[in-house]
């Protein structure tokens, strides 16, 4: 099984459509079983496709690009989390080529008004893979030192809303640097979860952000914000960062993470 997570920074990137093609080509090449995406935006004013999705939804455009490559076996779930940059409905998505048995979404922020830019939601899916039910959650959490929306409270709400009875993966941008001790990453790991980076037999350095990006305006360090976590000790064949110019071109202000079980 192959997994991918990526904070898309969608519609904030230069040459966005070229970058969507890079992502689509990588999906075709790697044939990921499940893909978790964050900052998956659509214009507030765009034409509606259904009750949630609009015509310029980033994940929908990505699926259409895949269809041009004769890749038609992925389906998506998406939900709206918060307004971004005053003109976008920013959300999260899960794409998979396996059977989605159940889908869900829930807020992990204290404020649940999507007009508030710090509102945070998690999108989840129970997916049947090789006759096994596995839970996947696409996560985009806040910052450790945020007084309005503390990271600790968001992590607590996250774990209150997931059962962890099945094999469970948490994928996404956790906005807390795994290289920093005694802050958000350690708080997250204290919940009894495992980092696939630690479990992997083969791995790189894990860096997913370099320097200043949105939300980290003063940063000058290499950071590991984007994670794939799992609730059970399992064999991880490999962990590697993607879309970092070493492994595929850069497509976002975050690099992606891919894991093979």
Structure write-up:
This protein is α+β, with helices and mostly antiparallel strands and 261 residues long. It has one domain: Endonuclease/exonuclease/phosphatase (Deoxyribonuclease I, Chain A, 4-Layer Sandwich). The protein contains five helices and 15 strands. The strands form three sheets. A seven-stranded mixed beta sheet has the order 3-4-2-1-15-14-10. Helix 1 crosses helix 2. The longest helix has 15 residues, at 16-30. The chain is globular and about 45 Å long. The model has no long low-confidence stretch (mean pLDDT 95).
Q: Mind sketching the topology for me?
A:
Layout: E1 2-7, H1 16-30, E2 34-43, H2 58-68, E3 75-84, E4 88-96, E5 99-107, E6 121-129, E7 132-140, H3 151-161, E8 167-173, H4 184-189, E9 194-195, H5 196-199, E10 200-203, E11 209-210, E12 222-223, E13 226-230, E14 236-242, E15 256-260
Parallel strand pairs: 1-2, 7-8, 10-14
Antiparallel strand pairs: 1-15, 2-4, 3-4, 5-6, 6-7, 8-13, 9-13, 11-12, 14-15
Helix pairs in contact: 1-2
